[in-house]
Amino acid sequence: MMTHLRSLRNINTKRFSTTQIRSFANEPPKVEYDDKQVKVNWESGRTSSFHNIWLRDHCRSPHSFHSITKQRLVNTSLIPSNIKPINIESTPSGLSIKWNDGTEQPSSYPWKWLYQSSYNPKLVDDTQLRKNEKVLWDSRIANNPPTIPYEFVMNDDKGVLNWLSKIEKYGIGFVDGVTPTAEATEELTSRIAFIRETHYGKFWDFTADLKHGDTAYTDIALGAHTDTTYFTDPIGLQLFHLLQPATSGGGESLFVDGFYCAQQLKEKDINAFNTLVNTPIPAHSVGSPEAIMLPSQRSGYPIINLDNLTQDLLQIRYNNDDRSVMTNLQPEMIEEFYRSLKLWSEIITDSANEYWTPLSAGRVVLFDNWRVLHGRASFKGKRRLCGAYINHDDYASRLLTLKEKFLDENLRNTHGTLF
Ligand SMILES: C[N+](C)(C)CCCC[C@H](N)C(=O)O
Ligand SMILES: O=C(O)CCC(=O)C(=O)O
């Protein structure tokens, strides 16, 4: 079994146990209210306080919330600032409030929803909506790379769930036994989500012919990088199928776990880590006359990007070749930036962190371009690679919907009512 190095942290969120829901039906919580807020005294002895205006704004009744589209119908800006209950009732199914704002019907709040929505205090960690436990890896992943059979993915949505769960956990997943054609590869890609078309086209099938003004379309070596650092929203998943290995040798593929490398940098040199978290990097793709790709924030985005709320690793954006002229570094930061960049480069090019593998016809790789860096060795002769990009949100949505479909409520790690 592959050596599991370490999880970022055990981020299996505290799941809401359904047993607590049933007990509400038997003995609804006691509630109190005043001109400003409602207080719910849960059976566990904990209490939650909700501002009246927050409750009116989040009313779940049909007059204020569309039960199918999950969209708000109430016009928040018209809720009077002195909104307060005229009457409040703690019923077996939930909390019912009649407001002083002239709304005919009361507002209703199912107990499970109210508990999961508690913000004062927070009772459920809903920040991990799209995340499950992540397992960091290094070169030892070669002992047992996450792999799944082609037929399972093609013929069963559980196979797609299994594949995307590997992407969520490891950031990378292989499919073996794939029919070695571009058509079959494109069909496999569509099992995940629709393809993200870019200035390189939709489903790409390329050789070293400089068809596009990018060194990917040459035979030179490419160091570990993530793609599309020049996009405001870098592509999410990247799929490769090497239909024709280089006829005169070389062209092996490289993968590196950028999250593990970022963690190593943080442990090794917190100042360098913080520099790469706080320094925006400009990038461009301007090698073809038909495209001038620049990020909307021209100063660019940092190499290491963290979740604003949890400070968890969210996205690695690193491509040394595509980095533009840096005119926005404070002069006193220049040397610190290059020092930090060098440390980062030493870690991602440490052979202990590199997973080199010779892709081949029939073996498809899918990886999270927001986490896993990729590269390739130089090669000689003819080499043909096909593949595609998928938006990160479309991948995450496909995974969430498959979890909803197949996983027990307590295993989904989603908080489906928090829309
Ligand atoms: C994958 N495909 C060959 C279509 C495009 C490769 C783009 C490479 C570019 N330097 C970047 O890092 O985004
Ligand atoms: O040719 C390859 O194996 C990968 C090329 C590459 O790095 C890219 O397309 O971003």
Kindly, what is the distance between the CA atoms of the first and last residues, rounded to a whole number of angstroms?
Answer: 39 Å
Structural class: alpha+beta
What radius of gyration results from the CA coordinates?
25 Å
Return the domain count: 2
Corresponding CATH architecture of the largest domain: 4-Layer Sandwich
Q: What fraction strand?
A: 15-25%
Question: Any overview of this molecule?
Answer:
It is an enzyme of class 1 (oxidoreductase). One of its GO terms (biological process) is carnitine biosynthetic process. The protein has 419 residues and is an alpha+beta fold. It has 2 domains: 18-124, NE0471 N-terminal domain-like, CATH 3.30.2020; 139-406, 4-Layer Sandwich (Double-stranded beta-helix), CATH 3.60.130.10. Helix content is 24%, strand content 23%. It contains 10 helices and 22 strands. It has helices spanning 18-26, 52-57, 111-117, 150-155, 157-170, 182-189, 258-268, 270-278, 334-348, 392-406; strands spanning 6-7, 30-33, 37-41, 47-51, 65-66, 71-72, 85-90, 94-99, 107-110, 135-136, 147-149, 172-176, 204-206, 222-225, 237-244, 253-257, 304-306, 313-316, 354-357, 363-368, 372-376, 384-390. Strands 11-12-20-15-22-13 form a 6-stranded mixed beta sheet. α5 (157-170) crosses α10, α7 (258-268) crosses α8 (270-278) and α7 crosses α9 (334-348). The longest helix is centred in the last third of the chain and has 15 residues, at 334-348. The chain starts with 5 loop residues before the first strand and ends in a 13-residue tail after the last helix. Mean pLDDT is 92; it is low at 1-23.
